[in-house]
Amino acid sequence: MATFELYRRSTIGMCLTETLDEMVQSGTLSPELAIQVLVQFDKSMTEALETQVKSKVSIKGHLHTYRFCDNVWTFILQDAIFKNEENQENVGRVKIVACDSKLLTQ
Amino acid sequence: MTNSTSTVYIHVIEDVISKVREEFVNNGGPGESVLSELQGLWEMKMMQAGVICGPIERSSVSKPTPGGPTSTTPVHDLNVPYEGTEEYETPTADMLFPPTPLQTPIQTPLPGTVDNSLYNIPTGPNDYPAVHDSGGTTEMKAGRPSPYMQPPSPWMNQRPPLSVDVNVAYVEGRDEVDRGTSHQPLTQDFFTMSSGKRKREDFASKYHTGGYIPQQDGAGDATSEILQVEINQGDNSLRRNDIVTTAKREMSAQVVRSSMKIPQLDGPIPDPYDDVLSTPNIYNYQGVVNEDYNIVNTPAPSDLQAATPAVGTQNDVGDDDDDEPPLNENDDDDLDDVDQGEELNTQHLVLAQFDKVTRTKSRWKCTLKDGIMHINNKDILFNKATGEFEF
């Protein structure tokens, strides 16, 4: 199963990375094992998003920057509005990083 | 943060932990205790980031009441400062940017039963905030303001109260990596304690009564004769001292002769203390005696300052090399940004997969799926998202 390392930049991924970092630095954990944990996180996070999350979001905003490189879209929006079923969030500036979903299914 | 996000995150944590358990327990892995340490730290960071609702159900078992016994955590407390020495120097870029993702060879989900056993293992770090406070205050009240004690690193502070003393004793090894921010208060306290305008007699008595203050200044090396000589030199070379201070020096010299343990004989400690931090010119107007004092004492402030490790590390790196440092410094900066500035809080970020991105003139439309958004300090997950942007 292919995975993205994309989600490592999320809060949960960063927390895990920091934790592994500390444990490797303290000698508690081997770097190889730490990487295995990260890879497992990639899988588990992707799977959880597919199977456990049902909500939908609409995003509107002014597209300040777009970029498509290595099958990754990057958008920088200004004055963006995020709406889901529950509420709405306004953000002055937000970055969207999106990998090609087809890469996972190949 | 929504409850659903928290739920999914907790699920992911448990999923990851259960699926790497095989690797931890077998094949000479570090064992179950390290795995639960990993989980505990991870969850603690998540709670601090505010993205999962604590306490997690299991934490009712594992969360020790303040002052309660915690069995597992002190172990790695003690290990941290000592084992970290070598890795400390090397950047951990390979962690953040792993070379080639290894595929986990074996996945053995161990449902149910194993998880339960996991819950029984205390994950002390969960009660970070209370611990931090109590630890700090007791440490200060203990009246042992040893400048050699580096304030514990943030995640050392995140330990249960019982282990605080242990940490204090061992933190002396100043190798561990800190994030720096959280011990500003401690550092400040040290400074204020020692920077009050005291006369040296006060210090002398204080040292005697306290009895616990370690040698901060190397005065133990000096015999009374040497001290006396130094004082005389100081008198000769005084540039801005008046009679009063000279008299004080003599008084202090007498005090020194009466008991050689008195470390501070050379004038107002606090001033040089502060000045050392700000102005390197201190030697010019402090005289020889103070110079001696300062030389001996500078380690103290510098050690305290080392508590903000990012600075120290960068300086070291910058001093050592010519070619490499820029890269390393940049690495440090990046890490700093991640740790402090941006820290998941200020930067709004959406991580997702795209199904389709189209453009008609300046109107962009995209469909995203399986996304994690961090917006306005909240983590929001979505299964699908549609975007309409104007360029």
UniProtKB/TrEMBL annotation, chain A:
Compartments, as annotated in UniProt: Nucleus
Record domain Transcription initiation factor IIA gamma subunit N-terminal: where: 4-49
Keyword Transcription assigned: yes
Gene Ontology CC, one term: transcription factor TFIIA complex
Domain Transcription initiation factor IIA gamma subunit C-terminal span(s) in chain numbering: 60-101
GO biological process, one term: transcription initiation at RNA polymerase II promoter
PANTHER family: TRANSCRIPTION INITIATION FACTOR IIA SUBUNIT 2 (PTHR10966)
Quaternary data: TFIIA is a heterodimer of the large unprocessed subunit 1 and a small subunit gamma. It was originally believed to be a heterotrimer of an alpha, a beta and a gamma subunit.
Protein name: Transcription initiation factor IIA subunit 2
Organism: Liquidambar formosana
Species lineage: Eukaryota, Viridiplantae, Streptophyta, Embryophyta, Tracheophyta
Automatic annotation (TrEMBL), chain B:
Sequence similarity: Belongs to the TFIIA subunit 1 family.
Xref: PANTHER family: TRANSCRIPTION INITIATION FACTOR IIA SUBUNIT 1
Listed SUPFAM superfamilies: Transcription factor IIA (TFIIA), alpha-helical domain (SSF47396), Transcription factor IIA (TFIIA), beta-barrel domain (SSF50784)
Domain of life: Eukaryota
Name of the protein in question: Uncharacterized protein
Single GO cellular component term: transcription factor TFIIA complex
Comp. bias (Low complexity): 59-75
Native species: Liquidambar formosana
Region (Disordered): 57-79, 141-160, 299-339
